[in-house]
Design the sequence.
């Protein structure tokens, strides 16, 4: 790894289109939603956090696995990169299971639900910290600026494609709501 790349990695200062910058931007949102999920006082706040977090987390994870982890695991010359990619995949799978359990339960006020939410929050905090240290360093060490930019472009395209059905459904719901209000106002 070049000295410049070591400095970038230490400071977390990457190009705007570098996959690490794009992953970090998602991580900020994910951390905030996971904190709300675990710490919100009201059931409605916890349910809203779950509704927002679940699709973002799924889209982020699947896209990250396909663009970053797959490439790290393919690096035959780097046991550290392969281990980081495999560990990340396992951590994603564990959080997926917990998120499904939360989504399957309607009682966001129960102690068990809150315990699951707390473990999701703690797991994501651990995973993101580890990823932004070790995985980001591996990406900087083994891939060029151009390769990381291409990975970033691919990550965003995959993530946005996975989020598109939700955005479309939300748009339709908003339009339906506006039409209902317009009809009420006209009556």
Sequence:
């Amino acid at each position: 790894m070049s000295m410049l790349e070591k400095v970038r990695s230490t400071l977390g200062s990457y190009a705007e289109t570098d996959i690490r910058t794009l992953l970090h931007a998602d991580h900020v949102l994910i951390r905030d939603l996971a904190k709300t999920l675990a710490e919100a006082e009201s059931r409605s706040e916890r349910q809203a956090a779950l509704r927002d977090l679940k699709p973002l987390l799924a889209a982020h994870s699947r896209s990250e696995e396909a663009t970053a982890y797959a490439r790290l695991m393919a690096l035959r010359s780097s046991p550290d990169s392969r281990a980081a990619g495999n560990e990340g995949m396992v951590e994603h799978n564990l959080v997926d299971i917990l998120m499904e359990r939360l989504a399957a339960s309607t009682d966001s006020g129960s102690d068990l639900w809150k315990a699951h939410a707390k473990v999701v929050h703690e797991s994501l905090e651990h995973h993101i910290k580890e990823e932004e240290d070790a995985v980001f360093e591996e990406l900087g060490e083994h891939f060029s600026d151009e390769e990381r930019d291409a990975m970033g472009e691919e990550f965003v395209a995959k993530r946005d494609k996975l989020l598109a059905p939700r955005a479309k459904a939300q748009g339709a719901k908003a339009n339906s709501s506006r039409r209902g209000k317009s009809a009420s106002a006209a009556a």
